[in-house]
From TrEMBL, chain B:
InterPro entries for the chain: CO_DH_flav_C, CO_DH_flav_C_dom_sf, Diverse_Substr_Oxidored, FAD-bd_PCMH, FAD-bd_PCMH-like_sf, FAD-bd_PCMH_sub1, FAD-bd_PCMH_sub2, Mopterin_DH_FAD-bd
Keyword annotations: FAD, Flavoprotein, Oxidoreductase
SUPFAM superfamilies: CO dehydrogenase flavoprotein C-terminal domain-like, FAD-binding/transporter-associated domain-like
Occurrences of domain FAD-binding PCMH-type (ranges): 1-178
Keyword Flavoprotein: yes
Gene3D superfamilies: 3.30.465.10, CO dehydrogenase flavoprotein, C-terminal domain (3.30.390.50), Uridine Diphospho-n-acetylenolpyruvylglucosamine Reductase, domain 2 (3.30.43.10)
Record protein name field: FAD binding domain-containing protein
């Protein structure tokens, strides 16, 4: 059998020297202003992890299926593997690290995940926690269908969904009253 | 799973965006929410030389009901925004319902209405909803601005009437008729998946005779474009949407739909599913009239 050889990239590859392939962008991450030189193709997930060292955002599937890389962009949960960092110029980002700094108590969502054992291996947890954070920050309590819809955007390979759901409901109870 | 290098630019006017798209030196691709494009970039299935981000063009971020009662959604309007808008929920509930079936909230927070339409995955919800709601598409390019009706917009899988140097700037949903009911039903293996098969139905009731005056029934996942079948609609129009008429419509769908086999389902399974969904959709739409 002949080993398969990757096809050459060919002339289509844009010149890296092209200045517009790099951009200086400013955004806010966990309340702090950040300015960085970034390449057009840099995914937000890689920017957070590799450039800012915020490795709490986990990268699972890299094509928008698993939800592990979810963070809040302008208070809305989004997939960072489906977002280029250049698209986020001027945006306010919140990652799992921004919820409860080392010297602060856990947020009600984090506490609920802890108390309800809403995790097993923990890989999917940061994504779930960020989506849950957006849910408790809504003006009105989301109904059961909305909660299920929001959580369906995340996969837990340990299949620990029952406790995750319990944790989210506990956090919602605390926020909106039972 | 990383994109190849490309340039990125975020123009502030439609004119600049069109000029970038018309530049023959470089292969440009429009990005708005990126929820279909970025996975393709990550997998290197898409290899554009420059991305034109249209979300910084203020006029494209507009969603409003115009003087003649039509709903106009600009190219940068996110799906979540449209689905939560009170005017949309009241006047175009089918649209809001169809958006609810797209992926997950995390996707809809980024993805745009026009982006999904211009991408045109034939299993996607919005092209089907747009055809059912008789939408019009406003397209701007170097040769000016033109409006295309839904019947002419969807050309083939991942292909629309929008040329490479043009931009879909707005989709217009006409004011629905007074006594109409709607339904959107789909069959998926998992919540949030693309439809294995789906159906959107809009029925109009003649209040004097209590019969169906007009019907628009559109299937997704049943061909390379959203599918409307005259035989299905003819079976419904003039009837009281009783058991017999709905069964005739379902039979027409069974015998005329030509979906394809793929890894998700056989053609036969899709046809059967479509016929069942059609019965459910007609009943629901009629109750809502």
């Amino acid at each position: 059998m002949t080993p398969s050889v990757p096809a050459p990239l060919g002339a289509r590859t844009p010149p890296l020297a092209e200045p517009s392939a790099w951009h200086e962008i400013s955004l806010t991450v966990n309340g702090r202003p950040v300015t960085a030189q970034v390449e057009s193709r840099l995914l937000l997930s890689d920017f957070l992890r590799d450039r800012l060292g915020l490795t709490g955002t986990h990268v699972g599937c890299e094509h928008g299926v698993c939800g592990a890389c979810t963070v809040l962009v302008d208070d809305k949960p989004v997939r960072t593997c489906l977002t280029l960092v250049v698209q986020c110029a001027g945006a306010e980002l919140r990652t799992v690290e921004g919820l409860a700094p080392a010297d602060a108590p856990l947020t009600p969502v984090q506490r609920a995940f802890h108390e309800c054992h809403g995790m097993q291996c923990g890989f999917c947890t940061p994504g779930f926690v960020m989506t849950a954070t957006a849910l408790v920050e809504q003006h009105e309590r989301p109904d059961e269908k909305q909660v299920a819809d929001a959580l369906s955007g995340h996969l837990c390979r340990c299949t620990g969904y029952r406790n995750i759901r319990r944790a989210v409901c506990q956090a919602l109870d605390e926020r909106f009253g039972e | 799973m990383k994109p190849i290098p490309f340039d990125y630019t975020a123009p502030s006017t439609v004119g600049e965006a069109v000029a970038l798209l018309a530049d023959e030196e470089r292969e440009a691709k429009v990005v708005a929410g990126g929820q279909s494009l970025i996975p393709m970039l990550n997998m290197r299935l898409a290899r554009p030389e420059v991305l034109v981000d249209i979300t910084r063009i203020p006029e494209l971020g507009r969603l409003h009901v115009d003087g003649s009662g039509d709903l106009r959604i600009g190219a940068a309007v996110r799906q979540a925004h449209a689905a939560a808008d009170n005017a949309v929920r009241d006047g175009w509930p089918l649209l809001a319902a169809a958006i609810g079936h797209i992926g997950h909230p995390q996707i809809r927070n980024r993805g745009t209405v026009c982006g999904s339409l211009a991408h045109h995955d034939p299993a996607a919800e919005l092209p089907t909803a747009a055809l059912a709601l008789d939408a019009r598409f406003v397209i701007t390019g170097p040769r000016g601005t033109r409006t295309v009706i839904a019947e002419d917009f969807f050309v083939a899988t991942f292909s629309t009437a929008v040329e490479a140097d043009e931009l879909l700037t707005e989709v217009v949903f006409p004011l629905p008729p007074a006594h109409h009911g709607w339904a959107f039903e789909e069959l998926t293996r998992r919540h949030g998946d693309f439809a294995t098969v789906g159906v959107a139905a809009v029925l109009e009731r003649d209040t004097a005779t209590n019969t169906c005056r007009a019907a628009r029934v559109v299937f997704c996942g049943a061909g390379p474009v959203p599918v409307r079948l005259p035989a299905v609609e003819d079976a419904l129009v003039g009837s009281d949407i009783g058991e017999q008429a709905v069964a005739a419509a379902a039979n027409a769908a069974l015998s005329r739909l030509t979906p394809s086999d793929d890894v998700h389902a056989t053609a036969e399974y899709r046809r059967e599913g479509a016929a069942h969904l059609l019965v459910r959709a007609c009943t629901t739409a009629w109750e809502r009239c």
